[in-house]
Design brief:
Largest sheet: 2 strands, antiparallel
Strand order of the largest sheet: 1-2
Shape: globular
Structural class: mainly alpha
Number of domains: 1
Distance between the termini: 34 Å
CATH topology: Glycosyltransferase
Length: 176
């Protein structure tokens, strides 16, 4: 939080944020970055596991206040799914559990993380409009499947296969 928030990643040697388009490019690896605090969201559940419930609650509030998915950026469908959709789902489930079991935490919570997850997953869905059913590897969060993205026919079957976990969990949580 101190060195990288609200950016996606921290560069460990420099102890500075990695900012897509501003720090030296790493090629396709940067498709994991969507300017949506990916490392924070990916690590929210860890805060609960290590017992940092106040930090978890404060971090969830920051995510709700600052993270948006309507950027005109091309992102990796796989990375965005496992890190962002998965991170938001687990944080939502943990927030609900704390809300029900813990007297002091998340009394204000109204499924904001779940709503964010649905928004993000809806932005990934155009990548699945393929003849094989396997998703395209990348999608534009704002504009969907642009022509140059549709022309990319490579995909990783293992990557697309892992998406069932997050999408099934989201379906179960939303009833959709």
């Amino acid at each position: 939080m101190e060195h990288a928030f609200p950016h996606d990643e921290i560069m460990p040697i420099a102890c500075a944020p990695r900012i897509r388009g501003k720090t030296p490019s790493r090629g396709d690896v940067d498709d994991a970055l969507g300017n949506f605090s990916v490392t924070l969201i990916d690590a929210l559940d860890t805060l609960v596991v290590i017992g940092e419930l106040d930090v978890f609650e404060d971090s969830v509030k920051k995510v709700i206040e600052t993270v948006r998915f309507d950027s005109d950026l091309v992102v990796s469908v796989f990375e965005t799914n496992i890190r962002m959709v998965g991170g938001l789902i687990s944080a939502h489930v943990l927030a609900k559990q704390l809300q029900q079991k813990d007297e002091g935490h998340f009394k204000w919570y109204n499924d904001e993380l779940l709503k964010m997850t649905v928004d993000l997953a809806d932005r990934l869905l155009p990548a699945f409009n393929t003849t094989s059913g396997l998703p395209h590897p990348r999608v534009n969060l704002k504009r969907g499947m642009l022509k140059h993205l549709k022309d990319q026919v490579d995909t990783c079957t293992a990557c697309s296969g892992t998406m069932i976990l997050e999408m099934a969990a989201l379906s179960r949580l939303t009833g959709n």
